[in-house]
């Protein structure tokens, strides 16, 4: 009967799985709300945000903002990326790939207004940052969620991915 | 693998939270979106403003008779006015064409409404400018026309041009002192008149011109293009609907801090090309006391009271017409003024510091004009009412008075306005710092009927349409008269160091 024991030893303590799950759900909530806001808000566009970008890639972002076709694609990917990544992280579905994609998306936010101290625009920011800002912290938080997965235990991935008896995911 | 209930519970632990999120998120998002949309009409307690919905007048060119136009004075403004008619100098076309591709500006000029006018006469006492004028008259760049027009006829004197039976209308862009005399001559010959601001160099000129225009009935438009700027039209509606309360103070300003800004222009533009041999000095002097040829008196004429009208006529006249458009102030009962020439002492008698106060007891208000040529920080005109303040240029910032009764219950964040208007512009179209300042003064483009159009263009269009019997000029002889009398009273008050009063019955000033 031990073979059918449903309590898997995941290698985490109870508090650890709770902490990782809460972090995953909160980041999912954050992305999902941000994405839904842009879906519902009339005529949202990242145009003014991109046009005021700073840092080494500012010209790239500005030309993206000024090319209508590219801007439409960027806005679409941004909005639905946020929604899907947020949704998936929230319920723990395909969390690993969602976390990777979330890191990439946040990286774009980070690099369009990098807090490098020189031509730093304070227009979209409250607080004082140098190199490390909230985007960077969230990027690393997602990385933690990748190396310490929780969705195979407390997410729908549990029903999708096979797990061995110790609760480690089999990719 | 058998699915045990505990497995399912653990795997689905986030679902109930997602449910809670779903219930609240949409409502919260809508609340946030609402909060970001500012309903100015609700703040002002009106249903809606009408001014922004004004429609453009349909073109009168196609079905109308061709209008032959002559230009006297092809300087900086003269060439601009020709451009509004669709004519450009070949080197402007060249400047705006790179590798065969025309710039957006040039494309926009080509797309301008065709007024069906022809430039048939050019008169300028400076050969370089008159030659440019002739060249320009050959190049109508409007789409649908060919670039090869007959050149306009050149006239040494405006008198010849008026009498030649070659014109239906005249544009006057000469130095101020000949504005009214040329207009009077032209009107008496039956020509319609577009006269640059300020309308008249003296009150006597203004009185004479008004009499002539009323008698001859020709269509006269003064070049105060603020009349076409949407911000001033909206401001007028705001005032007329009582949204400012009782207005008691009107403030206007001049801030300049460069040689060019102080109207010292000997070396500006192509002026270095001028000399005794290519300037018809006698013709230029008109009826003014004889002076030996002096390049300063030709190119920096604004600075000399014989030829120009100082900052009151050059700059205040503009702000005056803007506030007159909003408030219908008319001519003040009396004016006092002080100031002096302390800094720019090499060119003429223009004061660098000038302050005038205009008394309107029947309106319960006074107007001020504060001018300096040694400080360049733009101050926009302000109208102070008992309920709210209006700061105006091409944009409008309306802030509520701290003791307002009308808006007592309107709560605003500290940096927010009761009403804010900004014309919908492509900000990229305004490039340099100087053009930004020009634009802030209510010059440049405006937004009307869903389009972005230059206000000088609209002012000219209105004149042309009125000549064809459609509509009326916004800055007609009565408005021009008010402008000229008002600013001249200020200059007289300064010169005589006395209170100057307007006798409206006899149409003359009383000094002291």
What does this protein look like?
The complex is a heterodimer of chains A (171) and B (512). Chain A has 171 residues and is an all-alpha fold. Chain A contains seven helices and no strands. Chain A is globular and about 50 Å long. The two termini of chain A are 26 Å apart. Chain B has two domains: 67-226, Rossmann fold (3-Layer(aba) Sandwich), CATH 3.40.50; 230-284 and 294-451 and 477-511, 2-Layer Sandwich (Dihydrodipicolinate Reductase, domain 2), CATH 3.30.360. Chain B contains 17 helices and 20 strands. In chain B, strand 11 (353-360) and strand 12 (365-372) form a beta hairpin. Chain B is globular, with a radius of gyration of 27 Å. At the A-B interface, helix 1 of A face helix 1 and helix 2 of B.
Can you give keywords for this protein?
heterodimer, A: about 170 residues, mainly alpha, disordered N terminus, B: about 500 residues, alpha/beta, Rossmann fold, Dihydrodipicolinate Reductase, domain 2, ten-stranded mixed sheet, six-stranded parallel sheet
How many strands of chain B?
20
Q: Which two chains share the most extensive interface?
A: A-B, 26 and 21 residues
Helix/strand class of chain B? alpha/beta
pLDDT averaged residue by residue of chain B: 92
Strand content of chain A: under 5%
Amount of helix of chain B: 25-40%
CATH superfamily of the largest domain in chain B: Dihydrodipicolinate Reductase, domain 2
Helix content of chain A: 55-70%
Uncertain runs of chain B are: 426-436
